[in-house]
């Protein structure tokens, strides 16, 4: 990985940039338009949104109004829990497509494994894929047993699993399972929330060695684990800083030291125990 345009190759041959901009909790309208516009100007070619974020319209507008061709930007969105089910997922997808103002979406995900629903939701994604509306399909917040349930009888294997992943939650077993089955793991909230990790002495020491920030070290750690990552920011300086991570490489000892920060600690809901 040498640049912001470098991409993982999904098992169907589609290229997904390793680093993207997440827009969770970024306000619809001027704020999300500015964030996406800044990211595209910096060189990002991967934007991650969701129906639940309620900012698909702004994301789409920023991309359409840029000088960058649509096919050069990898766009992800997701079906929300209240829309899960076969027919309702198909309807929700076309609502998202209209809001974004596109003819297709690069990656469509099942946002959470809603019991009794996520399998038929995934079947709807398979139809959207076969009909050419999406270039890749996948899931989000799925544990190994959820993936096994999908893999047991799916026609098209998920290409991506987007999960909470950071040095306090390294998910080694899930990462290994996904690699074994050619499912690309993707990290949401790679920097955690609240800045706790950014003051972690191990990360501060490594950052000082390379003249980087702890956040940049974490993002480099993600990529060296071959995990796609989508840090969120609305600050132009931070958006640019998060992308400035392709000029250094962590040693095996440094990777191991960061791995050792794991506490199996989530900041988001447990995929086996959520009620929304």
Automatic annotation (TrEMBL):
<dbReference type="InterPro" id="IPR036812">
    <property type="entry name" value="NAD(P)_OxRdtase_dom_sf"/>
</dbReference>
<dbReference type="InterPro" id="IPR023210">
    <property type="entry name" value="NADP_OxRdtase_dom"/>
</dbReference>
<dbReference type="GO" id="GO:0016616">
    <property type="term" value="F:oxidoreductase activity, acting on the CH-OH group of donors, NAD or NADP as acceptor"/>
</dbReference>
<dbReference type="InterPro" id="IPR044500">
    <property type="entry name" value="AKR5G"/>
</dbReference>
<keyword id="KW-0560">Oxidoreductase</keyword>
<dbReference type="InterPro" id="IPR018170">
    <property type="entry name" value="Aldo/ket_reductase_CS"/>
</dbReference>
<feature type="active site" description="Proton donor">
    <location>
        <position position="53"/>
    </location>
</feature>
<dbReference type="Pfam" id="PF00248">
    <property type="entry name" value="Aldo_ket_red"/>
</dbReference>
<feature type="site" description="Lowers pKa of active site Tyr">
    <location>
        <position position="78"/>
    </location>
</feature>
<comment type="similarity">
    <text>Belongs to the aldo/keto reductase family.</text>
</comment>
<protein>
    <submittedName>
        <fullName>Glyoxal reductase</fullName>
        <ecNumber>1.1.1.-</ecNumber>
    </submittedName>
</protein>
<feature type="binding site">
    <location>
        <position position="111"/>
    </location>
    <ligand>
        <name>substrate</name>
    </ligand>
</feature>
<dbReference type="InterPro" id="IPR020471">
    <property type="entry name" value="AKR"/>
</dbReference>
<feature type="domain" description="NADP-dependent oxidoreductase">
    <location>
        <begin position="24"/>
        <end position="263"/>
    </location>
</feature>
<keyword id="KW-0521">NADP</keyword>
């Amino acid at each position: 990985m040498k640049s912001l345009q470098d991409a993982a190759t999904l098992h169907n041959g589609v290229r997904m940039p390793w680093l993207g901009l997440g827009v969770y909790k970024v306000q619809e309208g001027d704020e999300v338009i500015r964030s996406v516009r800044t990211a595209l100007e910096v060189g990002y070619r991967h934007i991650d949104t969701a129906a639940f974020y309620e900012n698909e319209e702004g994301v789409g507008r920023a991309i359409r109004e840029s000088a960058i061709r649509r096919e050069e930007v990898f766009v992800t969105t997701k079906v929300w829990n209240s829309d899960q089910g076969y027919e309702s997922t198909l309807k929700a997808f076309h609502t998202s497509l209209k809001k974004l103002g596109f003819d297709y979406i690069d990656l469509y995900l099942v946002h959470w494994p809603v019991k009794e629903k996520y399998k038929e939701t995934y079947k709807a994604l398979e139809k959207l894929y076969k009909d050419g509306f999406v270039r890749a399909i996948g899931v989000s917040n799925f544990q190994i047993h959820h993936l096994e349930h999908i893999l047991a009888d799916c026609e098209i294997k998920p290409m991506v699993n987007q999960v909470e992943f950071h040095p306090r939650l390294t998910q080694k077993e899930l990462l290994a399972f996904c690699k074994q089955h050619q499912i690309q793991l993707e990290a949401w909230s790679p920097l955690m929330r609240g800045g706790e990790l950014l003051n972690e002495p191990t990360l501060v020491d490594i950052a000082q060695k390379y003249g980087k920030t702890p956040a940049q070290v974490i993002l480099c750690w993600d990529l060296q684990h071959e995990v796609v990552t989508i840090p969120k920011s609305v600050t132009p300086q931070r958006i640019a800083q998060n992308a400035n991570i392709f000029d250094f490489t962590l040693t095996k000892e440094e990777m191991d030291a960061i791995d050792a920060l794991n506490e199996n600690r989530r900041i988001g809901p447990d995929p086996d125990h959520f009620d929304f």
